[in-house]
Design goal:
About 45% of the residues lie in helices and about 10% in strands. The protein is an alpha/beta fold. Helix 4 links the parallel strand 3 and strand 4.
């Protein structure tokens, strides 16, 4: 329950943030709704203006590239050592990130991932050197914008993001092998398993490129082939969105494409196309031209010579 002056207290709280625009955008409304002000960490004047009002730092880069390290080191440099930092650790473990920092004792990993930020739980990972006060501050910060903090093992993928990524991958394997259409797979999982979204709908919501990147990171971390990205997911990581109808391509290519087509029996369609092609094909030409008439042997009687007649 809010106290009479709780809104004024919340209004003075600021969070220094850096990371991916999309993930920051997903959190911005939630944080502002609960009275937090976001200050971009690379804006020196805004940081100076916020001053003592900054209560925490957020690093929200999901990629494993060097850009994430640079952003985390920026927060570590501009914030006082007493300020806790929560960093997205779905694709890079919190322990590895802590090894980059000058003040690793204040880092808490957070399972922040695109498309999965609206739930009530916040998965976190605590590196070995993180102090208890930083964990307590992180718990209070997350509770301040409606998240219950749970601590899980510090591994790539964590719990919920890793499971969802595998489900999306397996659904696209099935789609690519014509087990069922994308639409039917989503419908079956929503009706049969009670999922709020179908696997492929979930992939669209997260972003197929992010799903593929997470699976690659999990495979690199564990060395297990079960995290292998399926070919269709690799294509969708480039396209960005699942198509609802088969693209217009030549029929021979359609037969070889491992793409689900909602409401269409792809193998049966390919069979009909082959029959139609045979029916409309021109008559086959012989491999060799027919032999010349002079070379054709007949049953005509042998020629009678004059010499044979005289001998009779």
């Amino acid at each position: 329950m809010k106290t009479p002056n709780s809104d004024n207290q919340n209004a003075s709280r600021s969070i220094a943030v850096t990371g991916d625009d999309r993930l920051i955008g997903e959190l911005r409304g939630l944080l502002q709704e609960h009275g937090f002000t976001l200050v971009m960490a690379d804006d020196a004047s805004a940081l100076a203006s916020a001053g003592a009002d900054i209560t925490a730092g957020l690093e929200l880069t999901t990629a494993t590239s060097g850009e994430k390290k640079e952003r985390l080191l920026l927060l570590d440099a501009v914030l006082p050592p007493s300020i806790p930092i929560l960093s997205a650790c779905v694709t890079v473990t919190a322990a590895r990130q802590a090894s980059w920092m000058r003040h690793p004792e204040r880092l808490v990993g957070w399972g922040a991932f695109p498309g999965l930020m609206d739930g009530p739980l916040a998965e976190t990972a605590v590196p070995l050197h993180t102090r208890a006060s930083a964990v307590a501050s992180a718990r209070a910060l997350l509770a301040g914008f409606g998240k219950e903090m749970v601590i899980v093992q510090d591994r790539v993928g964590m719990i919920f993001p890793g499971i969802i990524a595998q489900i999306v991958n397996e659904a696209l394997f099935a789609t690519g092998q014509h087990v069922a259409s994308a639409e039917d797979i989503d419908k079956a999982m929503k009706c049969g398993a009670g999922y709020p979204l179908g696997p492929i709908e979930w992939g669209e919501r997260i972003g197929f490129a992010d799903v593929a990147a997470l699976l690659e990171a999990m495979r690199a971390d564990t060395g297990q082939d079960r995290f292998r990205v399926c070919p269709l997911l690799r294509q969708l990581a480039i396209v960005g969105k699942f198509w609802k109808e088969r693209p217009v391509v030549p029929e021979p290519v359609q037969e070889e494409l491992a793409l689900g087509d909602p409401g269409t029996d792809a193998p049966a369609t390919a069979k009909k196309n082959r029959k139609r092609s045979k029916k409309n094909a021109p008559p086959a030409q012989p491999d060799e031209p027919p032999e010349a008439a002079a070379d054709v042997q007949t049953d005509a009687p042998p020629e009678v010579r004059q010499e044979d007649i005289r001998d009779i």
